[in-house]
Amino acid sequence: MSSTPATRRHLLTRAGALGAGIALSGAVSELFAAAPAAALPPTDAGYGPLVPDPDGLLDLPEGFSYRVLSREGRPLRSGEGPVPSHHDGMAALADRRGRVHLARNHENGTVASHGVPKVEGLTYDPAAEGGCTVLTLDGPDGEVLSERVGIAGTAANCSGGPTPWGTWLTCEENESKAGTAGYAKDHGFVFEVDPENPRRSGAEPLTAMGRFQHEAVAVDPVRGVVYETEDAFVAPFGLFYRFLPARPRGGPGSLRAGGRLQAMRVPGLPDLSTVREPGASFDGVEWVDVPDPLAVATPTRMQDYGPRGITRGQKLEGCYWGGRSVCFVSSYARTREGSGADHHGQVWRYDPAARRLTLVIVFGPDSDVRLPGESPDNICLAPGGSIMVCEDGRGAQHVYGVTRRGEVYALARGRQNIGTPEAPEWGEFAGVSFSPDGGTLYVNCYEPGTTFAVTGPWRR
Question: What is the CATH number of the domain that holds 125?
Answer without folding.
Answer: 2.120.10.30
